[in-house]
Each structure stands twice: as structure tokens, then as C-alpha cells.
Specification:
This protein has helices spanning 7-17, 39-53, 86-99, 106-120, 140-146, 154-162, 168-175, 185-194, 200-207, 233-239, 246-249, 258-266, 268-283, and strands spanning 182-184, 219-221. By secondary structure, the protein is mainly alpha-helical. Helix 2 packs antiparallel against helix 3.
Length: 303
């Protein structure tokens, strides 16, 4: 895969941005029990294989390629060269189509894959409610306005999450997904050159690899210590002013989110519990269910 942000972020951002104003029917953890009993194991196998191949970090609208009729979310500013893992989703979907044609939605694949990715990296597990259907359109404009960029300040972050019905606690807990993966120089350049709330030595070490101009695709770990382990060191880095992104360090900058960063830095079990709760809540944001939408055969295009 191209040098971009990180795989796990694709899954998290997909949940945050993929919301539609459709009836919210009841999702179920046993939705595929009779129609595709091997669905969860097929997705998990695909995630494990992908992570072994390259360690990296909803209605599935982010998966749609642009067409002559609409410009989707995949090339929205926050996702372009950042949201990754599309090929992984393609392979998982192909395997599911062989086992259970036209049964498992791309949106549910993302929901399961998000949980399994966290577990494989050593994080918490949770029961994924299933039964989502796939959207038949996507909006670059909506993604550009609803996905907070890495330059966001705290008020913008709170506003973006609040618009999806997510609280400050949900936001700070879900930000812990940055405990795995990498980000591109273009995402953190402004933070390491222009911000004052960053450890000086940390900034200088990054400046050696990410100059003011050029090297846009150079990568740095979001968690400088354990970038392939789902733990709470992300928050401990924030306490030491060593957050990679401007938006990361905004969570600990003398404001209303500080106490949550301290709480999660002090207790990995509390972080895991709140992260899992946040993921469950985010997975239930206005999903397409019932007869709405469709079950895509190919996650990249409408049937």
C-alpha cells in the first residue's frame, strides 16, 4: 500500500462520517447467525492476514470510488492519501461473496473489522451489532465538513463529534485509536514548526525527517513508543507534550479534556472500557437498515 496515514484510522473515520438520516432499526449481534454463520470468522481472518502483511490503523460510503455521477468521500481532504485498507476490504468482501452471496454488507464488514483490528493489536473487544445496509451514494463535501482534519482545535473536534451525538468522553476515548499506526509529514508539519505546546526535543527530532518543504510522504508513528500495540501510551505522550498531530495535543492543552487524558494515561482498563463503549455508540449512529440502501457486491461501486 502507498505511504499514507494508517489503516485503523480508515475504520474509525468511516464510523464517524458514514451517517444517513434513515430509520434506525434494531441491529443485532446475531444478525448473520443463520444467513452467513462464518461471516465474523472470514472478516477476522482477513484482518489478521492484512496486519501480518503490513502493520498499520457506518454505511460504507467511504469505500465508493468516484464516478461520473458523484464525487465521493474517498478523495475528501481528510481521507485522500490517508484512509487506507481499501484492498483489504475488497479481499474480505470477495471471500464473503463466495461463502454467502449478497448477504453481508460492506458497512458491517467495516464494523467487524474495526473491532478485530483493535483486538489483534492487543486492545479490548466488544460485541458488534450487525444488520447495516450499504449506501448508494457518497459525498466528498459532507466528508470535508464532518471529518475533523489534523489541524483542528479542541472546539472544532468537540463540534464534529457532538454533531454525531458523541460526547467529550467518547471523543477523547476514541482518539486513543491513535495508539497504533502512522501519519504523513503533511499531517504534522504545522504542529512541529508552528505550535508551542510541543516538547522541543520531540519537535526537533521530527523536523530532521519532515522539513518545511518536501518529504510530504515521510511517515512518523502516532505513538512514538509502541506504534503496533493498542495501549494507553498515546495519552502518556500527550501529558509530555509529545502528541504527533496538532489535534492530538489539543486534547491536553489546559482545557476541558485534560482530566480525561490524565484518567486514561493512569488506567489502561478505564481507557479500554470507555473506548469499547464509544465504538458501540458510534456503530449505532443512524445506520441504513431494513429495505433502505443495498448490499453491495463490490464495496467500491453501487450494484
Amino acid at each position: 500500500m502507498a505511504a499514507t496515514s494508517y489503516y485503523f484510522l480508515l475504520l474509525i473515520l468511516t464510523f464517524v462520517t458514514a451517517t444517513l438520516d434513515q430509520a434506525n432499526s434494531q441491529l443485532s449481534t446475531n444478525y448473520y447467525k443463520s444467513t452467513c454463520p462464518k461471516a465474523l470468522s472470514i472478516v477476522r481472518a482477513g484482518i489478521i492476514a492484512a496486519i501480518k502483511n503490513e502493520t498499520r490503523g457506518c454505511d460504507g460510503s467511504v469505500l465508493l470510488d468516484d464516478t461520473a455521477n458523484f464525487i465521493g468521500e474517498k478523495t475528501a481532504v481528510p481521507n485522500n492519501n490517508s484512509a487506507r485498507g481499501f484492498n483489504v476490504v475488497d479481499q474480505i468482501k470477495a471471500n464473503l461473496e463466495k461463502a454467502c452471496p449478497r448477504v453481508v454488507s460492506c458497512a458491517d464488514i467495516l464494523a467487524i473489522a474495526a473491532r478485530d483490528s483493535v483486538v489483534v493489536f492487543g486492545g479490548p473487544s466488544w460485541k458488534v451489532r450487525l444488520g447495516r445496509r450499504d449506501s448508494t451514494t457518497a459525498s466528498r463535501a459532507a466528508a470535508n465538513t464532518s471529518i475533523p482534519p489534523p489541524t483542528s482545535n479542541l472546539s472544532a473536534l468537540i463540534s464534529s463529534f457532538s454533531a454525531q451525538g458523541l460526547s467529550l468522553k467518547n471523543m477523547v476515548a476514541l482518539a486513543g485509536g491513535h495508539t497504533v499506526g502512522k501519519a504523513r509529514c503533511t499531517s504534522f508539519r504545522g504542529h512541529i514548526y508552528n505550535d508551542s505546546n510541543i516538547d522541543t526535543s520531540f519537535a526537533r527530532s521530527l523536523q530532521q525527517r519532515c522539513p518545511r518543504r518536501g518529504n510530504d510522504n515521510v511517515l512518523a508513528n502516532l505513538d512514538r513508543q509502541t506504534p503496533t500495540c493498542f495501549d494507553n501510551l498515546y495519552y502518556k505522550n500527550l501529558l509530555n507534550k509529545k502528541g504527533l498531530l496538532h489535534s492530538d495535543q489539543q486534547l491536553f492543552n489546559g482545557n476541558s479534556a485534560d482530566f480525561l487524558v490524565k484518567r486514561y494515561a493512569a488506567s489502561i482498563s478505564v481507557f479500554f472500557k470507555d473506548f469499547a463503549r464509544g465504538m458501540i455508540k458510534m456503530g449505532n449512529i443512524k445506520p441504513l437498515t431494513g429495505s433502505a440502501g443495498q448490499i453491495r457486491i463490490n464495496c467500491r461501486k453501487i450494484n
